[in-house]
Amino acid sequence: MATTSEIAPDNPPPLHVLVVGGGPSGLATAIAVSLAGHRATVFEATPPRYPLQGSGVITCPNGARLLSRWGLEEGPDHWHRHVPIEHWQLCNRLGAPLGPDLITSGTGGGGDDERGEEGGNNNISSSDSDHGTSIPTHKTKAPPPWAWKRGDLVAKLRQRAIKLGATVHLGTRVTDVRHEEGSGDGAGGVRIRLHGGEEHRGDLAVVAQGTHSRLRNTLLDQPLEPVATGYTAFRMDVSQSGIVNPSPKLVAFMDGPPSVRTWVGQGSYVTVHPMDKAGLLSLLVLVPGALQQHNEDIIPQGKLIRYLKGWDDMIYSMLDAADAQKEWTATHLPALPEPRHSPQGTSVLVGDAANTMSHFLSQGLSLDLEDAATLGCLLGHVRNAAQVPAATALYSRIRNERAQRLRDMTAVFESQLRATPSDGFVNGAEGLGPEGELRSSFGWSYDAYAEAEKAFNSDPF
Ligand SMILES: Cc1cc2nc3c(=O)[nH]c(=O)nc-3n(C[C@H](O)[C@H](O)[C@H](O)COP(=O)(O)OP(=O)(O)OC[C@H]3O[C@@H](n4cnc5c(N)ncnc54)[C@H](O)[C@@H]3O)c2cc1C
């Protein structure tokens, strides 16, 4: 249901928001801006017929809540699975579940629109594991996570943005963003330049260029570049039909309800989830150390199989069948931009361009969607272009606080991971550390619209 912030302002003409980057956060921004009654134009550098890139992505409940609100549901061409929350299981490296109290009561809403597709409403009272261990849980109203192929997510967001009235230009690279002084009414604006020289004028530019954003430093006082986290990441697609002699446990995982399994131990992290109708799994492995140290093998899976010797044998079977492996040095932004808007307040950063952090809590995408929702919600209160800087300043404040907290939690998780004994975190609720906190009311139950409304009401512009 539309709230006041999603209803177009009656009198004033809508703002024109120029979005640089048509990845998940740029497209989500276009959706949120359109729902707020404004006009969004997205410029995406990738050419129209270029296949959508990427492997699996997970939207945590805090992000899934927004996708439902924006009207994204499963369609015949673009597939995702709702993962019942009790089926996102954190295990030690041997596959024993860590817990016991994985889920605590959610505070952020809930209702019919947050029901899982499996017919359940994720009001969980108990769950089991394939080890026969009962994990006691409290009731939660957090919506289920969604597991995707990145390409399907981007296609679906693009389709929704266009349906809501946004314009999406593909094959269009933005080379510059400049503030433009106001004239008569004092309201400034922004001008972007495209590769080839064409220019567009708008009331606000949203830079959603991802981790390696080139325009970020034209907005910020302090230059900011991503740096290596000290982890090497391996992302693989695993076809279920290609797995030879899967163990009973792996068969149960593949045949059971859609599930996410995460293993931790020896400073390393492995996670798997389904990502398409055809039974493709997405497998992500993060190991400490620089890329070069792991680079001497001819068969990349071979070095991972050796590295993960003694881990849950489910992992071996998947590594054996894995193809399309991608290996890269994981990066993050060494500090978060403070503020994340230009001095004049007419350009802002959203998504990975502002938030990039380590993968451990799977929060990157959800945090990016929250950025879009927060900005859209605040722009819903803007009555004229002169109010844009106040809206972007409030956006910066809300999002920096939130991202910093998640970043701190991620850092704690990482330091616990590095310090873990070989069999993973100690068993027990305290062993979950930040993962447990994340699944509590602060993390997964965060409602970006509700928080932005609250901040606006206590500090209106
Ligand atoms: C190719 C690719 C593959 C990925 N694969 C995975 C994956 O398998 N699993 C996973 O969890 N995460 C993956 N990610 C990261 C994940 O999508 C992001 O963490 C997250 O969704 C943030 O999205 P974003 O929109 O902020 O940034 P991004 O997803 O990085 O999107 C930024 C977009 O901006 C465009 N762009 C950049 N510069 C310009 C410019 N000057 N003008 C116009 N457009 C520009 C890029 O082409 C890109 O589409 C991938 C990202 C990319 C770009």
UniProtKB/TrEMBL annotation:
Keywords: FAD, Flavoprotein, Monooxygenase, Oxidoreductase. Residues 16-408 form the FAD-binding domain. Pathway: Secondary metabolite biosynthesis. InterPro entries: FAD-bd, FAD-dep_Monooxygenase_BioMet, FAD/NAD-bd_sf. One of its GO terms (molecular function) is monooxygenase activity. The keyword Nuclease does not apply. Gene3D superfamilies: FAD/NAD(P)-binding domain. Residues 101-147 are annotated as: Disordered. Belongs to the paxM FAD-dependent monooxygenase family. This is Monooxygenase.
